Amino acid sequence: MSILHNRLSKQKLKQYALFLQENRINLSFYKYFNILNVQEYRDNIYKYFYKYHVLGRVYIAKEGINAQISVPIEFYSILKNFIYNFDNALKNLRINKSFNNDKLSFWVLSVKIKKNIVADGIKNIFFNPNNVGIYLKAKEVNSMINNNDIILIDMRNYYEYAIGHFPQAIQIKSITFREQLNIIVKKLEYAKNKKIIMYCTGGIRCEKSTAWMKFNGFKYVYHLEGGIIGYVHDAKKNNLPILFEGKMFVFDNRMSEKISNKVISFCQQCHHSSDTYTNCAYNICHQLFIQCRSCAIDFHNCCSIDCMKKII
Fold first, then answer.
1. Mean pLDDT in order along the chain per 10 residues (312 residues)
2. Given 200, 267, 292, 302, which residue is catalytic?
3. How is residue 293 annotated by DSSP?
4. Which terminus of the chain is more solvent-facing, meaning fewer CB atoms within 10 Å of its CB: N or C?
């Protein structure tokens, strides 16, 4: 009988993954397309990924697939061929590779069925995957973003923006993508005839956000092809300057990947320069916050004195 779910606790899976010490590569990909039998699709993905020791997070919905995974390097080509041949909709799919693979990013394989592959909260049936913004390569982005007539928008959450962003980018302050979509149309009502460039980590949020902007009457909408990840890879490949500053937040155990050496954020306790996120060591709190090494020692990896007192 095929294994379709994890049978061990997360703690045991973590211990096992750390014990193996495999050379791995972190990948991410997404695609909006119609999936008829979501359960069958999910089970087939799980069985194959499990067979080749893939770890990570995969969301399957009627509207498509969204994945952030860690793959043993020896199985990368096998997995890539599987994805390209599993469904015609995934043939030649963009697969983003991470910049930093020296830390274990996942220790569990989770393949879940979701209502949406990105939670948007939009009730209008508007989304047409072929009616998104115009894709931009690194060269085009670099030439456009210093133009005062162009609006650059960061479509990530506030804690992602805090440790790294393009200097010219407008932050849409929010905790969730759903909140951003509610805010952005009203906030930029004045700019319906201006050129707007949107970006996110890997591109998936901008597929929906650029389509949403076009649906709401914005005429000139663009987004970075492959998000920040695609931009950096393209810039490096073509020996172009990388204008993104700081770190890129990632939703796995690494928490961030360094893009530039510039530190643009501050420790929330001593207010000195720092770009390292941690979760409060007091599990009932577990707050995500920026903490420098010195404060991590002084506060025992906690966000406050009150939390620290509860673990020592």
1. 60 59 88 93 95 94 94 94 94 90 82 90 69 95 92 94 95 87 91 95 92 92 95 96 96 90 96 96 95 96 95 87
2. 200
3. H
4. N
- Comparing C-alpha atoms, which of 26, 32, 108 is closest to residue 65? 32
Contacts of 94 (CB under 8 A, 6+ apart): 29, 203, 226, 230
Q: Which residues of 53-88 are buried (b: 16+ CB within 10 A; e: fewer)?
A: bbbbbbbbbbbbbbbbbbbbeebbeebeebbeebbe
Whole-prediction pTM = 0.88
Compute how many other C-beta atoms are within 10 angstroms of the C-beta atom of residue 243.
17
CATH superfamily assigned to domain 134-237 = Rhodanese-like domain (3.40.250.10)
User: Rounded to an integer, what distance in angstroms lies between the CA atom of residue 152 and that of residue 158?
Assistant: 16
Q: In the structure encoding, which two tokens stand for residue 102, read together?
A: 């020296």
Residues 100/254, Cβ–Cβ less than 8 Å: yes
Q: What are the boundaries of each domain within the chain? A: 10-113, 134-237, 266-309
- 302 as an active site residue: the answer is no
What number of other Cβ atoms are within 10 A of residue 106's Cβ? 21
Considering Cα of 283, then 288, then 294, then 295, what sign does the dihedral take?
A: negative
Domain 10-113 has CATH 3.30.70.100: yes
Distance between CA 26 and CA 255 in Å, rounded?
13
Tokens of 172: 């849409």
- CA angle 38–42–44, rounded 5-degree value: 120
- The token duo for 40 is 């069958």
Q: What residues contact residue 255 under an 8 Å CB cut-off, 6+ apart?
A: 249, 276, 277, 278
Question: Where does 52-203 have alpha helices with state H?
Answer: 76-86, 138-144, 158-163, 177-187
